[in-house]
């Protein structure tokens, strides 16, 4: 589909299909550029049989039953109102939790005791890993427990983890993707971030299946925050990690004073309805990176398309955002709240220009901000305080790339006014607005 002379693709769902060797990225809401290149058949060694987890009575299903019994022995609770069952479409999901009867808002569905959590805060004993990212620390611990096999105290839980085949068929976290597959998405940020993760894992974890273990941690771990906890807890939660994600969840997790994790009904749930929770308000690219899928959204747009003409720039940014390229969502969470243009924004931009250099430097900052503002289809500049240090140095290329990621689509007229204030003598350049 072509709009405004640029290539865009709108799809409603997708997965990486290892059988036909094609990759489809799922972008549920909004228009997103998608550049796919030809690729050979995806060849990987499959470590388990194709039907391992698809039918009740299979190996993983027996392991799930054993895990539930293990949790009950540890003092956990599994309400009679829910049960686990195979998903209707195993290629996307393997197991789901459904209600066996009507559930009222506030009812407890599942409780997992604190002693069953696999957490870096309670299990990490390697001082060298304390400064590493949380998923690296947890991957190290999980690799250690997997090496113990049946002697691990978490062996009933380890047997329920997805197989390599499951990730292979559904896409899986990007840390499992090859360079060739990452380049199919053609998003520089995703490629560089994933390569950094892969190199970290390869350097710090020695087991042969280290990336596979890291994929478990990225796609299944939760960050628990509660007034009852001394600190945030990054952990794997048996049983609850089988619950699927939804942007409109009907259940949520709580942590009590004992550290136990409880799954609570957020509202009334009818018999036969699937129990769904939220994995957090994160950027859609974070979902693609960590889980291998793009979640549905309740908003019309969950990402920003920004068009910057390279002709008007007299310097080359480190990471150029060319026509139709996908940008990260501004802020720490997605979706963010749309904000109108206000006088305070004008003043803030003016203060940047006044405080961040004189002469040539001032001109370059004007180029930096002015070109971004002028060539967007109505955007909002947010969280600039965190990037102002870049404007004090000569690293304008990095500053421009960072600032580009702070834009959000909103009022066109207000942005043009900002552009006029920044560069009143600069001739106006026609903007390309997709869809018109």
Automatic annotation (TrEMBL):
CDD domains: SET_LSMT. PROSITE patterns: SET. It holds the Pfam family SET. It comes from the Eukaryota. InterPro entries: SET_dom (IPR001214), SET_dom_sf (IPR046341), SETD3_SETD6_MTase (IPR050600). GO terms for molecular function: protein-lysine N-methyltransferase activity. Residues 82-280 form the SET domain. This is SET domain-containing protein. It comes from Compsopogon caeruleus.
